[in-house]
Amino acid sequence: MTQVNSKKKASLSSLLKVANSGSALNAKLINTTQIDFDPNQPRKAFTLENLTELAESLLAIGQIQPIVVRENPDVKDRYILVVGERRFRANILNKAETIRSLIQAEIPVDKLRLIQIAENLNREALSSSDLVSAVFDLHDNHKLTAKNIGLAIGCSKSRVSELMTVATAPDFIKQYLTDGAKLRPVVELARLHKLDAEYIESHLENKDVKDITLPFINSLKSQLEQSDDADSNDEKESVVTNDSESGVNTDLNTNNDSESGVNTDLNTNKDSES
After folding, report:
1. How many CB atoms lie within 10 A of CB 27?
2. Given CA atoms 138, 139, 142, 145 in this order, what sign does their dihedral have?
């Protein structure tokens, strides 16, 4: 476990160095009204309680680390937030007019998304729902492989694949994750849905997020397997019955052929007599 965590920290650190390249001494004060949020920021959920605690800390000891922004390519004298959205929001709570910022040169979009995920994971764990959306964006829109995503953000390839399983599931399954269900049962639910969507959906009617647990999902899996076994046995019995009936018909045909042979012999005798 320690080895995995050390690899994860190394991956995150290397990405954050890209974002924070340039001394904090080069940071400049930028008016908060000139900075726009990045709509593709991986973190979507911010709790007021945590932001309030950070705002109080900033008031007490000041802003130690600057945020990172990039110039808005479409609007002069405006900036887009790259790293530090929690600090930025906390400063807004404090009604700060300016914020210390590093202006970063243009960063390729795929690397930008990785940097933002790394920053969020390094500061405060992303919600499972936000992480699923972020990984899907990197894989689907920026064509990064599961292996490369995993190496960058410190996740195994199998973990990335699990996140992708949820990301490609129907919206109602992803909603369970957004509403607070644990990742593991939602992953297993998404896998079962791929096997038999109609069966799973029929058993999810009136199910709340609190019902989406591993024991419930394992029970669904067991029921689905039993149902499949029953269907398989029914098919086998049907085949045996049809073969048996087919055998009777074959015997009858054989008898008919035999009778037909008798008639032929009679006809032959008649021909002989004539």
Report:
1. 18
2. positive
**CB of 69 within 8 A of CB of 107?**
no
**Cβ atoms < 10 Å from Cβ of 158:** 10
Q: Helices 146-153 & 157-167, crossing angle to 10 degrees?
A: 110
Q: List, in sequence order, every residue forming a beta bridge with 28; answer none if it has no partner.
A: 101
d(CA 181, CA 172): 12
Using alpha carbons, select from 46, 49, 87, 81 the residue that is nearest to residue 65: 87
Cα-flanking dihedrals φ and ψ of residue 79, to 5°? -130, 155
Query: pLDDT, tens digit, for every residue of 195-228?
Result: 999 999 999 988 999 999 999 999 999 998 888 7
Query: Which strands form 35-36's sheet, in the order they lie side by side?
Result: 28-31, 98-104, 67-71, 79-83, 35-36
Report yes or no: 181 and 212 within 8 Å, Cβ to Cβ.
yes
Instruction: Among 60-64, 147-151, 158-162, name the most confident range.
Output: 158-162
